[in-house]
Design brief:
311 residues, alpha/beta, Pantoate--beta-alanine Ligase, Chain: A,domain 2, 7 helices, 38% helix
Length: 311
């Protein structure tokens, strides 16, 4: 019996030792996992900081390029407009792109600063929608989203009652970003993708002039009625060989007669705002930003800056 008791005590002790070893092993594994997660988190934070700083550097380089630009005329053959291929930095890379805002139609020109309709801008935007094969009544809905009154505009107008089933109210103010269009009744992602290539959103000063040296054909065609596609394409080929230094040069010698149909306020050769897009990648970390800047002589004012999905 004494022998059996000693064996029993030894068995209990062995079980206790094995249990302690198991507990220590579990603790060691958990501790190692927690240490790995902490290290991974610290590494991610370091990579994210590097991407953010790289984007800051890319934006500074873009601003420096714009500051060195000859502000007497802006065209697609200038340094700021050239392709900016991705270039390596340490163990990552930075890519960027600069484009002038005046190549696009500013949707915020649809209403003035007091929230009243700008009929000239409405006509231009409606022609643009027609060229893109989009429903022109969508422009009516957009006007109502932005204007200050409560009366539906045109046949496609939609005021407060049209948003009764939405978790938000009609804005009655200018657009802040282009993706905001998805909140307007009738607009969807496909329409937004089409418009991204021809319109933009920035603070309005009445009419944001269109740069004849940088604007795409669809934008130029929308500036007046009955403009020929062939005439516009011929003008675009003309500017590729030599940029127009003034609007009057566009129609000098009897050339580009179609442009005389356009109100002079719509045409410029100097851009007053630029969009800077910069993206940085380091290992699994990525950061991309879009910055809108206004040019005032050799100085620039940042109008907006936001993180985006990519270039």
């Amino acid at each position: 019996m004494r022998y059996q008791g000693k064996n029993s005590e030894r068995g209990v002790a062995l079980v206790m030792v094995l249990s302690l070893v198991a507990l220590v092993a579990v603790w060691a594994v958990q501790s190692a996992d927690e240490d790995w997660i902490s290290l991974r988190r610290a590494e991610n934070m370091q990579l994210l900081s590097k991407t953010w700083l790289a984007v800051e550097s890319g934006q500074a380089l873009a601003m420096r390029t714009l500051a060195a630009d000859d502000a007497s005329v802006d065209s697609l053959d200038e340094e700021w407009a050239l392709d900016w291929p991705a270039f390596p930095v340490d163990d990552g890379e930075i890519a960027g792109h600069i484009e002038d805002a005046n190549r696009y139609i500013n949707l915020n020109d649809l209403v003035d600063n007091s929230g009243k309709l700008n009929k000239d801008a409405v006509a231009v935007v409606k022609r643009l929608f027609a060229h893109l094969e989009l429903d022109m009544q969508l422009v009516d809905a957009l006007v109502d989203w932005m204007d200050s009154d409560k009366t539906p505009y045109g046949s496609g107008g939609t005021e407060e009652s049209a948003y009764a089933d939405q978790p938000y109210r009609i804005k009655n103010a200018p657009l802040d970003t282009l993706p905001e269009l998805l909140l307007v009744r009738g607009f969807d992602r496909d329409i937004l993708n089409k418009l991204t290539k021809v319109v933009m959103v920035r603070p309005s000063k009445g009419i944001s002039g269109v740069n004849i040296n940088t604007a795409p054909a669809a934008v130029l065609l929308s500036l007046a009625d009955n403009i020929s596609q062939g005439d516009v394409e011929a003008m675009i080929q003309q500017r590729e060989s030599a940029a127009f230094k003034s609007v009057s040069e566009l129609t000098s010698g009897g050339l580009n007669v179609w442009a005389t149909k356009i109100k002079p306020v719509w045409l410029v050769t100097i851009s007053d705002a630029f969009v800077i897009r910069v993206e940085a990648r380091f290992a699994r970390a990525r950061w991309a930003e879009r910055m809108l800047v206004a040019r005032q002589g050799k100085k620039f004012q940042v109008l907006s800056r936001r993180k985006v999905a990519g270039l």
